[in-house]
Amino acid sequence: MSNASLKTDSLAFCLHGAAQAVAAVKSGAALPQALARIFAASAAPAQARGAIQDISYRAMRHLGRAEALLAAMTSKAPEPALLHGLLCCALALISDPDVPAADAPYNAFTVVDQAVTAAASDLSIAHAKGMVNAVLRRFLREREALLQQVLHNPVAQWNYPAWWIDAIKSTYPGDWQAILAAGNALPPLTLRVNCRKIAVADYLHSLSEQGIAATQVGPFALRLAQAVPVNRIPGFEQGQVSVQDAAAQLAAPLLDLQAGMRVLDACAAPGGKTGHILECADVDLLALDSDSRRLPRIDENLQRLQLHAELKVGDAGARDWWDGRAFDRILADVPCTASGIVRRHPDIRWLRRKADAGQLAKVAQGILDNLWSMLRPGGKLLFVTCSLWPQESEAQAAAFAVRNQAIRLPAPGQLLPTANTLYDRDGLFYALFQKAPE
Length: 438
Ligand SMILES: C[S@@+](CC[C@H](N)C(=O)[O-])C[C@H]1O[C@@H](n2cnc3c(N)ncnc32)[C@H](O)[C@@H]1O
Hints:
Oligomer: single chain
CATH topology of the largest domain: Rossmann fold
Strand order of the largest sheet: 7-6-5-8-9-13-10
CATH class of the largest domain: Alpha Beta
Bound molecules: S-adenosylmethionine
Helix content: 40-55%
């Protein structure tokens, strides 16, 4: 797919890049990996990368509506996938019913013009530039009627697959609309203050001195009023703060850590919770992850924080990496569908299948039972998921407690994702277990 004739500072170039990303997600790729491949293969400067990322993330949050509009205006699905992706990106940008045209982040006529230019620039879809022009201009002309027509369909209204909407509705009958809406909101930038380096009040003060507004949303959690690039966060390079959602910041304090304890962080990469554990207490920490490509991320995080853990590649469901010495504390932040963090990863809803929760729950069950045998009597295991599906969370926790005669200690349980300024967090699940003392 070539777009060499497009200027890299044009919207057409960015729409073309985002269309490639949407096409990749439709064929099963995760959006961050798809974008990394597109950036590696193109000469996109930093600003264009930012715009391509912005457009493709918006497209994920508005894909249900964009595809419904496309279906209403075409007799058969546009092919190839790049053409479908381009039309979806353009429609996602110009069809938000909650945003008046005057407030839209992208001017609708410019989007249409630039989408046609993007189509014309690429030999694989140049033949369809007239169709791109006709479809998008028809949408602008008949916007209200077309929106009214498609928004009856819950997929177009909520921008999730139908099975996902049904599952959230039946699991959370009182909160389903708020949960779906929270998953479509832009996630905040939340920081965790490293209490080894600076007090929360002092850090807040230094933020306000630099004109950065923030609200405290947890003991160490500060939500910035506006996101800033990581390299412009004061004290970030010096390890004064890390980027971490307020819900994820609950893990380390729940572990009830004391100096000298032997602790296992069993599914540790990229090390967000690893760093917080070490900020909280001087423990002997083993950080394990089965993905060797993700382990260096833990190392980078710990180097920045000037903290130390032993890092190992290993399967938390196996025993070959274990030296036989029991752990005082175990954090099991197991692999899951990530259905509770869709506001940060809006592609997940389109990538997951209904059966995934059951399959991942089986893997997690193997990990939990295996880790339990590595915990000392009287020790504690904290089970965490970022899922909203009970099969992966509460049902898993309840069955685990029965199977292993584990004592269940107080923990937050299922946190529902919320998006308001005072209390803002991802949808994580926490269950805490203690092994009976001998
Ligand atoms: C939810 S993420 C962990 C996030 C991390 N705890 C943090 O706070 O930054 C789950 C991690 O589990 C790892 N993983 C998946 N299966 C695993 C297994 N069988 N054993 C160990 N790690 C595994 C994945 O590579 C992934 O890095």
